[in-house]
C-alpha cells in the first residue's frame, strides 16, 4: 500500500540521514506505512549501500538491529 506522509518534521529526519551518511552509508531505502493509529517510516540499508572502508562503523550492530520507537519518533 502506498502511503503519503504529511507534515514530516525535517530536523530529526535530516539529522538521522546525516548521521548515517557520516558513518559511511551512501544509499538508503525508505519504507513507510500508514494506518489509523500511527504512520511510520523506516530507513533501511545493507552492506552494499555502504562505503567499504566505513563498514567497520557497523560491525558491533547485528543484522536485526532496529531503532527504538523513541528513535523513530524523533525522526518523524
List keywords for this structure.
76 residues, two-stranded antiparallel sheet
- Compute the average pLDDT: 77
Approximate helicity band: 25-40%
Structure class: alpha+beta
Described by strand count, sense and barrel closure, the largest sheet is: 2 strands, antiparallel
Rg over C-alpha atoms, rounded to the nearest angstrom: 13 Å
| N- to C-terminal distance | 19 Å
Number of folding domains? 1
Weakly predicted, low-confidence segments: none
Instruction: Tally the beta strands.
Output: 2
Q: What string, H for helix and E for strand, traces the elements in order?
A: HEEH
Number of distinct helices: 2
List the helices and strands and how they pair.
Elements: H1 10-22, E1 29-33, E2 40-44, H2 69-75
Antiparallel strand pairs: 1-2
Describe what you observe in this structure.
This protein is of the alpha+beta class and 76 residues long. The chain has one domain (10-75). It has helices spanning 10-22, 69-75, and strands spanning 29-33, 40-44. A two-stranded antiparallel ribbon has the order 1-2. The mean pLDDT is 77.
Task: Give a quick precis of the structure.
This protein is of the alpha+beta class and 76 residues long. The protein has helices at 10-22, 69-75, and strands at 29-33, 40-44.
Amino acid at each position: 500500500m502506498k502511503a503519503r506522509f504529511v507534515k514530516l518534521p525535517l530536523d530529526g529526519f535530516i539529522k538521522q540521514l546525516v548521521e548515517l551518511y557520516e558513518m559511511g552509508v551512501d544509499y538508503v531505502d525508505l519504507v513507510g506505512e500508514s494506518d489509523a493509529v500511527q504512520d511510520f517510516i523506516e530507513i533501511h540499508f545493507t552492506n552494499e549501500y555502504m562505503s567499504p572502508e566505513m563498514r567497520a562503523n557497523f560491525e558491533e550492530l547485528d543484522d536485526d538491529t532496529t531503532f527504538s520507537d523513541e528513535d523513530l519518533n524523533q525522526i518523524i
